[in-house]
Amino acid sequence: MSPFKLPRTLRLDPSDTFVFTHAAEPGEWAVTGSFLFLDSDPAALTGKARAAFRSGFAGVRSLGFSTLVVVSEASEAERAEAVETLARHILERFGAPDLAAARGAAEEEIAVAASLCQLPVGSVVAMHRTAEAGEIHENFRTLHQRAPGSDPLHARAFHFVETDEDEVEEDADLVALLRDPASGR
Questions:
Q1: CA 51, CA 144: separation in Å to the nearest integer?
Q2: For the segment 76-134, what is each residue's pLDDT rounded down to a tens digit?
Q3: pTM for the structure as a whole
Q4: Which residues, in sequence order, are CB contacts of 30 under 8 Å at separation 6+?
Q5: Sign of the alpha-carbon dihedral angle for 72, 78, 79, 81
């Protein structure tokens, strides 16, 4: 078992690519990313920037946003690489005075991210970020899978209903659509 746990970006569907200007790639190490909003006025944010502020974790490699993260095991080498990658962003994109200062800030961000992972591996976490009196606040929640049969209304993705009507049935090949969405078959 790995000595570390860190959050990784999770994409269950393509919605992050529509919700955020720049979506994180699935599987990136992630941090909360609040530092990305320190120089902005959260009340003035609109559209995709506002969505990123409210609920976006930042992928360490891309600094793109992800609505969800999953608690994952990380080796010491993976943790160190995440710190170095984030430190380079902080130095080059955010003007840290030197690499040592950038590395210190990256270590703090990674430590905060690791503190969210006091959950079993595979736990899914969502965030809601707010700004109050000039301070950014983050609230986290763990998403749990419902026990089978606990909610019969939402237990299935599809609900089939038999009818006696002689209507033309649509024929949709969902597997083919997943392979080639442009084909329509």
A1: 23
A2: 999 999 999 999 999 999 999 999 999 999 999 999 999 999 999 999 999 999 999 88
A3: 0.76
A4: 6, 7, 8, 9, 24, 57, 58, 59, 60, 66, 69, 113
A5: negative
